[in-house]
Every structure is written in structure tokens, then in C-alpha cells.
Amino acid sequence: MAGVIRAKQLFLCSSILSSNNNKVLSRLPRRSINVIAGNLNSSETKKKEKEKRKRRKEIEVEKATAEAVVNKEKRRTRSSRGYELADGDEVPSSHVPVMLGEVLDIFSSVRLRSFVDCTLGAAGHSSSIIQSHSELKNFVGMDVDPVARKLGHFHIDSLMHPTLKASIVLKNFKYIKSVIADTQPELLDVGVDGILMDLGMSSMQVNNPERGFSVLQEGPLDMRMDPQATLTAEDIVNSWPESELGRVLRDYGEESNWYLLQNRIVKARLNGGLHSTGELVDLIRGTSPASRGGRQGWIKTATRVFQGLRIAVNDELKTLQNSLYSSFDVLAPGGRLAVISFHSLEDRVVKQTFLDILGFQREEINGEGSSVKPERQIEERVEKELKEKEEWIKQTVIASKGVILTKRPITPSEEEERLNRRARSAKLRVIQKL
Predict the structure, then answer these.
(1) Rounded Cα distance, 174 and 326, in Å
(2) What is the architecture, at CATH level 2, of domain 204-316?
(3) What is the pTM of this model?
(4) Could you read off the pLDDT of 98-136 as tens digits, one per residue?
(5) To bridge 13 with a disulfide, which of 33, 36, 168, 355 should be the other Cys (CB 3.0-4.6 Å)?
(6) Where in this chain does the entry annotate a coiled-coil region (predicted)?
């Protein structure tokens, strides 16, 4: 109401001052005329200042956006390879292997006599590897998901030939050494020529509401990759200490609104707790600020919360780190380990663990640590061989134990990102044993 009165007063003042009615002005005391003029000047000044602040903010946002784009491009190497589908996949509506062409390129120059797929899934990558390498004699496929393992087994069986020995095992890739020892122990002596980890969730898992991974489908708060594991997301949200729950949302989910969500989840325990994905999503929707952009705002928040819970349930980051060390250990000289990650936490673990494997400290990312660098002639020979054989290799980090072939991660081509939405956040890193 006060704002309306103020507006009317300003309009009246403006009308009086803009009129040529000298009689009206002459009847007003000089003090009143000064007050009227001052009010108008003050209003105009505030309006101009508001416009200036708005423009400054727009410029800052434009500048920040431009810098973010530049920095993102600096930190990665976009693949220039054409988008390649696995045989039989015409449209990427079902699960399609991400960066298939890039994976084939990575192993194309390797005499691949043995190969381990740590995340077999539907065997999209492995099927193409087997078809591309007639020299392949030993294959090991691992998956912790029984449904995925069964489907992958079916596809590998269809590609079997008399000279190929294949072992398909229902195990987490953290057991890579023991799996090889139990199934094809000769590989521990000679080493494995190629290992692949695709850390993304398959469409089979996301689209099954009973697994509890989807924010858009009603299901139990499960989120276990291994159905035989005991810990579930329901256990975390209903019984973990408040501080631990907050840590999961903050550190694993990378959610800025973690504290409020933590309090709301703990408060929900007083009313029986949360037992389904729908109940958790409803809580998130009621907690997400309206300023975050309506439906898309809460979906992004829910995605981060689900990510944090899934990582905690499956102990994904620690498992990944330990598995990278074990995988490098079983590589043969010249063998390669390729890892496709799908979010910043995974990529950070892969990047730093590769550096740790070669003996670099965090500050030696540019390869300047003299204690771990090979002799100059070895370095020159490796660089020469890599450049001659493989165009996809842009920048490397070389040490006496091995070479990181992707100083910057390779990301999908624009075509693949357009045709396969799952690929948009993918990053591919490769390390080779010397």
C-alpha cells in the first residue's frame, strides 16, 4: 500500500513540475518545490543505479560462462572420431557402449592376446574387441550384477571360437587378481595385454525400478550393485549418524544444499523414516529452493543425492582406487588399462591414482619430478613410437614404470554426445605399463 501511495505522489510531483501552470507553482512554498524536485531526482538516480547493477551482473555472468567453457575445453581432448555403434545397434535407445570407437583405437596397436573386461555388462565393448582382434586367446569378463553378467555371457558365447578361452565371472572388479588366479592363472605369469573399466551404470540397471537407482521411478531404496551385499540406501537414510549422512550428501553427492537435506531426512525418521525412492524424491522436492528452477532444479538435486547414496552403498571410490592398483599390477609390459568415468569424483580418483602408480606427487602433474622420470633415451623412444603409431595420443606423462597416454582425458565426439545422451559426461583415461 505504501508503495502505491509513493507512486501516486511521484506522479503528482512530476505532473506539477512538468506543467507550465505558474499559478500552481507560485502557490507552493519554496521548500515544498525543493522537496518535490528532490524526490524526483532521487527516484531517477535509484533507477539508473539499479540498471547499472543489473548490467554489471549480466556482464559478470557472461564472463564467468565464457571462462568456464574455455577452462572445460582446456582440461579435455574432445574425440574427433566418428560415432560408432556396436553391431546390431541402429538407434541408441537401449544400452549402447560409450566411446566404443575410442576404446577400439586405444587397443588397436596392441597385440591383444589377453583381455579383461572388469565391467562386462551387455558385453558391448568386449564383443567388438573380440571381433577386432583375431589374435585374442584369453578373455575374462567380470560383473557384480547377475542380470548383466547373464546377458554379457550370452553375447560372448555367440562369439566363441576354438582358439579363444573365455571366463565370465560374477565378481566385483576389486577381485581382479583372485579371479584371474582362479580362472586363467597363466595370465598372472605373462601379464594381461588389455584391461577395460566402464564405470557407467547400464540402462538395464537404471530402468529397473526395483534396483532403486532412478529418481523418476518408484521403487525400494536399494541402490546395491551387488544384490548379495547387505548395506542399502534405506539403511543410510534411516540409521546412519547425522554427520555421516551429511558427509555422503556433501562429499559424494557434491550437493550444496546438503545441510538442509540432512536435517529433513533425519527429521523424517521421527515419522517412520524413508523407505522408497518416491518418498525420498518427495522430500527433496519439498526441500529444494524455488530459485533452482522448478522441476529441473529438484531433478538435478535428486540426481546428486542418489549419486551420493549409491557411491556410499557400493563404496565405489575406494573400490575403484584399489582396483586401479591391482589392474596395473597384472598388466604385461606394453599392456594398457583404459577407464571410462562419468562424474568428477570418479575422474579425479582415476587421474590421481594413475599419477600415484607412476610415483608422481600431486604437484608433479606436469611430469617434472626427476626421481620418477625414465632415462632420456627411454623417454624419447616411447614418445617416438607412440607418435608414429597412434594419432589419438596428444599429451603424455612418462615415468620409468609406465606412461599415462591421456594427460588430458578424452571426451566423446559432438556427434556421440548428440546421439547418445549417456555419453555426455564420459571421460576416458589410459595408462600403459613399460
Answers:
(1) 8
(2) Orthogonal Bundle (1.10)
(3) 0.78
(4) 999 999 999 999 999 999 999 999 999 999 999 999 999
(5) 36
(6) 40-76
